[in-house]
Amino acid sequence: MKLRNPMMRMVSSITLAGSCLIAGQTFAADAPPVGNVQAARDKISMCIGCHGIPGYKATFPELYHVPMIAGQNAKYIEAALNEYKKGSRSHPTMDAIAGSLSDQDIADLAAYYADLK
């Protein structure tokens, strides 16, 4: 359909631009947060007590080898923390810690630990 009236073309263009803006905002809101390594530096204190000690084994609720997470893939860390948060993976300490984290906290911690070598 060809719009001959300049006013109708302008209204149509504005409507199209507005629709694109709204759609873009919707997709941006659905995007996962991007991890910030610097922001994570204030959040790692709850992690380093176990995950920062080579060969560390926790004894609650049973003897458990605590994995080193430095250098681990960020997507893996995010997935694991989200599984603890949702209850599909379980360990009492990790359940409590992950449950206290926002999606941004999880992304930041994953970025931080993935960045370590």
Structure description:
It is a single chain. The chain is mainly alpha-helical and 117 residues long. It has 6 helices and 2 strands. The protein has 2 domains: 1-31; 34-115, Orthogonal Bundle (Cytochrome Bc1 Complex, Chain D, domain 2). A two-stranded antiparallel sheet has the order 1-2. It is elongated and about 75 Å long.
Provide a short characterization of the protein structure.
With 117 residues, this protein is mainly α. The protein has 6 helices and 2 strands. The chain has helices at 6-30, 37-40, 45-51, 74-86, 92-99, 103-115, and strands spanning 57-58, 64-65.
Topology:
Layout lengths: L5 H25 L6 H4 L4 H7 L5 E2 L5 E2 L8 H13 L5 H8 L3 H13 L2
Antiparallel strand pairs: 1-2
Helix pairs in contact: 4-5, 4-6
Keywords:
single chain, 117 residues, mainly alpha, Cytochrome Bc1 Complex, Chain D, domain 2, 2 domains, two-stranded antiparallel ribbon
What share of the residues does DSSP label as strand, in percent? under 5%
CATH architecture of the largest domain: Orthogonal Bundle
**Class from helix and strand fractions:** mainly alpha
Strand count: 2
Mean pLDDT: 86
Provide the CATH superfamily of the largest domain.
Cytochrome c-like domain
Give the domain tally: 2
Numbering strands along the chain, what is their spatial order in the largest sheet?
1-2
Stretches where pLDDT falls below 50 for ≥5 residues? none
